[in-house]
Amino acid sequence: MLRGVNFRDDKDFSGCSIFGMMNVRGEKFNGEPVITAIANMKERSNGLGGGYAVYGIYPQYSELYCFHMMYDDQKAREETEEFLKGVFEMEGAEVIPTRSCEGVDDPPLLWRYFLQPRESVACEEEDIDDFVVRAVMHINVGIEGAFVFSSGKNMGVFKGVGFPEDIGRFYRLEEYEGYIWVAHGRFPTNTQGWWGGAHPFNILDWSVVHNGEISSYGINRRYLEMFGYICTLHTDTEVIAYAVDLLVRRHGLSIEDMARVLAAPLWTEIDRMPARERELHTALRQTYGSLLLNGPFSVIISNRSQMIGLTDRIRLRPLVAGRNGDFMYISSEEAPMHLVDDTLRDTWIPQGGVPIVAEMEETVEVPEAEEAKVLPLRHGDTA
Amino acid sequence: MYKDLKSYLLPQYLIERDDYRCIRCEVCARQCAFEVHWYDEEEDAVFADESKCVGCLRCATLCPTNALVVRPNPTQPPPNANWTMEVLQNIYKQAETGGVLLTGMGCDKDYPIYWDRIVLDASQVTNPSIDPLREPMELRTYLGAKPDALKVSRKGGRPDLQTKLTPQLKLETPIMFSAISYGAISYNACESLARAAAEVGTYYNTGEGGLHRNLYKYGANTICQVASGRFGVHADYLEVAAALEIKIGQGAKPGIGGHLPGEKVSAEISRTRMIPKGTDALSPAPHHDIYSIEDLAQLIYALKEATHWEKPVSVKIAAVHNSAAIASGMVRAGADIIALDGIRGGTGAAPTMIRDNVGIPIELALAAVDDRLRQEGIRNRASIVVAGGIRSSADVIKAIALGADAVYIGTAALVALGCHVCQKCYTGKCNWGIATQDPYLSKRLNPDVGARRLVNLLTAWSHEIMEMLGGMGINAIESLRGNRLRLRGVGLTQEELDILGIKHAGS
Amino acid sequence: MRIEVDHHAGLPGVFMRVGDKVKINARQLHYRELNNMIKNAALEGTEEIVVDNVYGQRYIGSGIRRPVRIILHGIPGNDLGAFMDGPHIVVDRNAQDGVGNTMNNGTIVVHGRAGDIVAMGMRGGKIFIRDSVGYRAAIHMKEYRKFRPVLVIGGETQDFLGEYMAGGLVIVLGLGGRGKRRFTARHIGTGMHGGLIFMRGEVEEHQLGKEAAVAPADEEDKEIIRPFVEEYAAYFDKDAERILEGDFLKLYAKSHRPFGGLYAY
Ligand code: SF4
Ligand code: SF4
User: What pLDDT score does B385 carry?
Assistant: First the structure.
């Protein structure tokens, strides 16, 4: 069963390792350093979940939404495909290439689709992205045994139950190159791991990997429900992805202001700020208090042009950043950054609640002519 | 009515005096406004007329030698689940007087107290609890409408907030003092509440009796009520308030008005309420300018206009069956704050049958209102304040987790001032100097002492709230607000759990 | 672009014995393998253990009760020297979180920065960090009889320095900036009820926890810290006299029972 044993927990929680690496000029690189780095923090995970988000991997389809799907069975696939064909032009559909790999058992059926919202359906919608979000919610809530785990453009999430390095081999990540790689190793405390419950969590271009537990989950979730986000997964990470989507994409807040909502400064600090800032920060807390992420967390949030590291406001979870030339690193621990980059010297520990923002420094045209990474359609190639 | 009708009432309380301890100081005789005790010089003994005793324990508390025991009269009618002593006494009273039964304070019937069937969560392992004594712990709460989204523009890094928030009340702890009018309680009690609110950084509520001139200086911490009687409502009153509250109803007596008897309308009260001395002060049951929801909107905007849109406007209703829908209408009518008062809410005077049988427990009303506003996507447009039977910091924190922004405490605040919940407030003879206008009695409550006791209470509760929040790994109260996952029910039916939106303990 | 990670810099774990010295290559070693090698070498009476290519291995130095020297090249993992009771550890680069956690005795010298909760619950021994440290350094540090822990930080610290501190000595030198150091950490000494913190530079009132008192350090105070500043200077090649010339603030507990009035009985 796709959703695993149905425990009635409020949500699951996990301790974890997170690692992100970005080339700020948009130059693509292979996943080996990221896999090595996340494997180096093995003590922080327990083999019950690993995953990656990689940006820049589908250049030939860069204008299409790519859905990565998990299915329990062919019936769920047929039902989903029928739904997808109804509202999207389906420009490509294939099994996600994998190899069998020790330590990675019982994978679900893994498929990916390259989709363009149908004009007839989409033109009635004021915002295509909102439309896609609704389609994702529809599948995740409405179609038994089907789960969208990636829905962005020119990016993809690869995740499952296993140690992250095994998951990397399982998905043949050595065959991909991207300019942002974000990885996660998980240490869940309860369920025997459900593939969909591994990190990263993704909605549109946003991906989130997360370490920690969010004590405010109950209210964060109820607040997001008011805006149409349905939290199906019972994980706080999902909540972060939706919160970022709401604040940045829909409400148009800057990354800094978004960070100030998720990890708000203390009132005592706000009270000491100059008038304008005080007004802003007071309003942010008053308006978005229900989205304050309370409790220990460190996260890496990424989209196609940014990689953002953030911890809770009193930094109860670790995060270290580093920069070497065009490469930016964000990690739970310092050692793995050095392990994969021996010449790295510039590293720092951010203040709690202050985001580290790695941004594309020049908009680099994504080269078109790369060899297609999308392999031809092959059925049943999941084990 | 026959004047000489023999009363069949038995004393409600028995007074036992230990003659060996009694030193004949006559404190009890002087302290009891009900004239229960007297000293007989000839016999050199103190006697008591127990039939007058209301059980306020003033005498027992002040007796220097602890010579007095006041206890409920154990004499009972023949055992009968239906015809209890209370039922019989009520009938005797009415048979002897032909009157409506009157009482004070909140409903004392044995309805389930859901607070006591709800338990809180704490962090273990996966999430550190936070030590509130050393780590920051934020209780600050803002009441008022919040926008759906903020627009911020940045010019050269300088933020410019495009969305301006409507006025907000800033509370340093999410506890305010409920509406209690000057008239129902003494001036000294009002002053104690006002000063404590100012010192703590929260608010007290004038109730419907206007605001005494001397208390205008606490205006920044005052919520001025506008009720159906409009007593003392004039431009200065509206101007000085931090917020205004339209009182539609009250938990102790939903659907009925009020009546301050003319005897209590002293010179000071007459000045404050702006009615002639000695006349009855009648609060009609409804506002006669509000017969429907759009009329409420009209009054809300009239108050906003009159105060230059500088103050949030609260609307207070009694928690009744249909509260959720009513609350939704109130939000849409422009209320910035919705105050809900549950069946256990107190009063200075209410017909007993109303007090004890009309309305619903606040816990259920709160859960239903918060749910409904969220389903409609308008929860942020108003804050929710609940009242009616908040007895401890645990009740406060559970209310907040169920979805309240803040609570009002009335009875608990009066208890802090000495009230022993004898429920005889309507007699005007409160021995504790609270529910009285008798200068001899009211000077027993020194506002310096009263304010200190109230500040202590709020300080202690705030500390306890911080401890409980910290235990849950939360360091800002907004992260608990509406966070029902941190609650569990114990011994509740599925129906009750569903309404409260919580799971049963163990699941 | 293809990035290769050299997984095999030398043979992992090779154990070279040169006189009293032992050399270990930690590349690819799990912490248990590495720490077993270190412990065995220490038990055999080795004077100095040099470990190359340390990348994130945890608990190095834990469980050793001899005054052995352990020289680490690389970035040791969390809980370096946790519960340690005697060794002298030198790190040539940065250290991660939890350095000297509940340490009893010994010395840790870090030629770089350390992460969060340095010297948490430390009861004895000395820690010298050349640069700065993260959050909650010296949290609940305590002293008991002859045990008096010392933490010297060359740069500055992040928030909650000396939280709940119950004893011991913390010295923050504020080196590295230009002019007088204005510390930025918040909530310093919150819940402090013992011990002393010296900070070379400026701290504003609002940065302190309400249980911490502050006063300028006088000459007598400087004599308390002198030996440790000198030791710091010796490790990192600095001028102790010049450091000591600076203005220090002394932070101490207002009361040994800061929460005495909290409860109603
Ligand atoms: S009414 Fe109060 S003061 Fe008077 S006798 Fe009864 S308990 Fe005592
Ligand atoms: S206020 Fe006074 S009269 Fe009213 S219940 Fe309390 S003690 Fe009794």
Answer: 98
